[in-house]
Specification:
homodimer, alpha/beta, Helicase, Ruva Protein, domain 3, Dna Topoisomerase Vi A Subunit, Chain: A, domain 2, four-stranded parallel beta sheet, two-stranded antiparallel sheet, 8 helices, 42% helix, globular, Recombination protein RecR (chains A, B), TOPRIM_dom (chains A, B), metal-binding (chains A, B)
């Protein structure tokens, strides 16, 4: 791509550094900004700059927060002995939106992934182990994705906690509530049969 | 989507104002920036801010440029009597990349589109008419997209130029050079038969 303007080329280059945004999309986005009032670009750059400079991570759960201790961790009505281990803040938001969970979270900040150069020391694992050691947690719920990396991370944490008194569970995998069996993948369907639950329990939850 | 951080919510909102970027994608992009060094966000916001504030449009062809008269318009080796009428700078870049065109451009900045509230007065049409009236242009090539809006815009300009001495042509529409006939749409294939060219001409161009 040949640009007639260095300013344009530079903006397109920086935009195309974002994941999933190629040069063509970047050019489309940048030209869109040029057609909009100058205020829109100002608001965008200000919001991104402020976020990156002023963002805090909750000292307890490591989730993104505007304050030192996030709203969830500082909420007295949440169950402090129940902690759900997730990868990032998107998982927290997804679980919060169900309205079904009243415990706390622990945000690891990623999964162990040797291919991407992410080892256990890059994640917030030691602070989780400390929390468990201090005895404040009764149950941990693993809610990482069911990929090789997710399973590896679960297992690594599990090994770190061996011998400590804490119940460890993992979220149920199975057929989605509104999904048809015939369209489910074999692994999910298989797990969903292996991990079947008493019908009376299902009645209670529905 | 419920956010635990106003800073995050604001950044996601501004990002999702870009076309084709929904809230989920915006969140993914913003979280990516948070994981990268602070410099990346700085470079992005600086590049966008500078572009929006300092961008110039060439006084002759209205294309994006860092200077008053763009490189193409000020290039003495381009044919000044031949002007290609395009919608925006992406079309200029596409035609330039062919290396086949040695004339100048005129960037309209859009197409006439009543549905989007874009009328002739929103486009750089009057300056094109002035250029033709001044007698400096021998041939205009319409290279707008072959949509209803593109055709309307072509026809509007054509009417404005009635009685003036200028040759008006439009780029050839037909089957792509490497495309198979069986996969071509009927309209394109039909046009490509109606507008067939002498075989000797095709030989010369290949």
């Amino acid at each position: 791509m040949e640009f007639s303007s260095k300013l344009l080329e530079n903006a397109v280059y920086e935009m195309s550094q974002l994941p999933g945004i190629g040069k063509r999309t970047a050019l489309r986005l940048v030209l869109h900004l040029l057609r909009q009032p100058e205020a829109q670009t100002e608001h965008l750059t200000l919001a991104l700059g402020q976020l990156r400079k002023e963002i805090k991570f909750c000292k307890k759960c490591h989730s993104i927060s505007d304050v030192e201790i996030c709203d969830i961790c500082s909420n007295p009505s949440r169950e402090k002995e129940l902690v759900c281990v997730v990868e990032d803040i998107r998982d927290v938001m997804a679980i919060e939106s169900t309205g079904q969970y009243r415990g706390l979270y622990h945000v690891l900040g990623g999964k162990i992934s040797p291919l991407d150069g992410i080892g256990p020391q890059d994640l917030k694992i030691s602070s989780l182990v400390e929390k468990v050691k201090s005895g404040e947690i009764k149950e941990l719920i693993f809610a990482l994705s069911a990929t090789m990396e997710g399973d590896t991370t679960n297992f690594y944490i599990y090994r770190q906690l061996e011998g400590l008194e804490v119940k460890i569970s993992t979220i149920a995998r199975g057929i989605g509530v509104n999904d048809e069996l015939e369209y489910a993948d074999e692994v999910t369907l298989g797990r969903s049969i292996m991990n079947r639950i008493p019908f009376e329990n299902a009645l209670k939850n529905s």
